Amino acid sequence: MTQLYVRALEVVGRLLPIDLDLEPGRVHLIVGPNGAGKTTLLRALIGLLPEARGEVRHGDRVLDPGAHRRADVLGWLPQTSPIEAGLTASEVVATARFRFQEPLAAATTAARTALGSVGLAHCAGARVDRLSGGERQRVRLAALIAQATPWWLLDEPSNHLDPKVQLAVLDEIDRHAATGGVLLVTHDLLPIARWPTARVLGFEAGRCVLDLRADDRSLPDGLSRLFGVAMRREPGGAVVVDAGRR
Predict the structure, then answer these.
(1) Other CB atoms closer than 10 Å to residue 127's CB: what's the count?
(2) What is each CA distance from 112 to 95, 115, 123, 141, 177, in whole angstroms?
(3) DSSP codes joined into one string, 160-198
(4) Residues contacting residue 229 through CB under 8 Å, at least 6 positions apart
(5) C-beta of residue 128 within 8 angstroms of C-beta of residue 89
(6) pLDDT tens per residue, range 29-66
(7) How many whole angstroms separate alpha carbon 49 and alpha carbon 41?
(8) Distance (Å, rounded) from C-alpha 212 to C-alpha 104?
(9) How many CB atoms are closer than 10 A to CB 216?
(10) Above 90 in pLDDT, residue 189?
């Protein structure tokens, strides 16, 4: 497993220079108020913002700019993304394997395996534009699995999903974090209880202002300052808004 290093990564007017050493084998939770720069960070890392400056390195290798050139290291799951009308779920997922230069049959087999891992094997031949919003999000997750990158960059991956499917998505993240690395943007603080050893990175106004383990005793106070609302730790480890305090 290989570390991901971020050096002086910035997007003028949106993200101040960021330096991070990101460890594989764990989940990194990126939290903060709306407009704090969380999604901008992921988009800059993946190479989707030509105006971004700085260096992204995977071990000793400096990643060339551009999403296609980083596709063997970084996989991205956005909150929403357009899916071309008329494509089947299997076809959408197979396109995520463009970097492998393999026969179509091999890509299709890998796509069907990935769809099965997210519980959508029965939808392989279905048109994606006719699936529900939650099913389309699971197709995107299957595409990420099929891309087979060591690092996942996830932006609110469980949005629009029912509780059972949310748990299935978190299970997939667990499996990936066992051998790779995960950066997860979330407004839902429940993952803090699920992953007590996760690293919580708090963003505000384009800066990383908080960097603590999820089980750190000072995390509720740090999140209270970050979000401007009182928070507390529950016995099970979850951090929640403290409705009795201001």
Answers:
(1) 15
(2) 12, 5, 9, 13, 22
(3) T--HHHHHHHHHHHHHHHTTSEEEEE-S--THHHH-TTP
(4) 241
(5) yes
(6) 999 999 999 999 999 999 999 999 999 999 999 999 88
(7) 10
(8) 44
(9) 15
(10) no
